[in-house]
Amino acid sequence: MKHFLRMFIQVCLYFYCKCLWRCLKFVVRKLTGRCELQRICYNTKPGAARTMKIEASLKGSKSKRLQTSVSVHPDAIEKTIDDIMELKKINPDINPQLGVSLQACLLQIVGYRNLIVEVEKLRREPYDSENLQHEEMLLKLWKCLKPNSPLKARISKQWCEIGFQGDDPKTDFRGMGLLGLYNLVYFAEWDTEVAQQVLSDSLHPKYSQFSKVEWEKKKFDKAIGYSFAIVGINVTDLAYNLLVSGALKTHFYNVAPEAPTLTHFQQTFCYLMHEFHKFWIEEDPLDIMEFNRVREKFHKRILKQLQNPEMALCPHFAASESLINM
């Protein structure tokens, strides 16, 4: 009986707050002459802060048309903006900038949803050694990381030199499918110098980041290395979970002036790989068995950073240099 009463009170409280909030919005609109979407666009600078408020406003609307506007096809965004303006009785000739701002926000919102679909598709596609494209990508990974050491055979213990577990890497991609390979190849191909350095440090970690004097001062006397490729696949899993949970919205809405793409995701992976490597050395684990503890601690640190609406994890990769005040 007590449980039922508690639930009844919670339901009543929910509907009371909801009605109160809508009444408050109605009063504010009458006082300011602007709807909530207008107030957000005019009072919040472009980026994650604005886009996330617009997204929450559209999803929380009592209008079905506004609720579904966050999941339209990219080609339908322009028409969707016209529908929103019409529904909200906003004159586009008097408020031309509002349409531009809403379009920028919707491109990011819809783009993020589509990026999840694209990333999920890659994650679900298994590595196929009979697929020539998959094999070429795998061999490219080796050439980028070990340009001066030719691979003697496709099935070879040499793969352990870049952090795979056995003589055939295809078995290591099971958890993240092609997504893990795509990320590793992107890192090795587009951030080659850093990737090669991280690989070298993972094999010979001591003094990798500090001078001998600094190392002794920090008492890092038991540096433990790790398997580069396996950690890359693990960090891919971390990036994937940040994406699917919505945590990466803060970052992507700040760096992508329009729709975030797979390239943005891969650049974020590069950043996470580099940052995890530094974090691993700073944590100075006793042995590789501490990997999960270190990974979880790193994950929490990234999540905390992403709670800041102005956060951009890797601004040097930002596609937002051309971002203007829309």
UniProtKB/TrEMBL annotation:
Q: What are the ELMO domain coordinates in residue numbering? A: 133-306
Signal peptide interval:
none
Q: Name one GO molecular function term.
A: GTPase activator activity
Instruction: List, alphabetically, the InterPro entries matched.
Output: ELMO_dom, ELMO_domain-containing
Name the PROSITE patterns on file. Answer: ELMO
Protein name in UniProt: ELMO domain containing 1
What's the source species for this entry? Answer: Chrysolophus pictus (Golden pheasant)
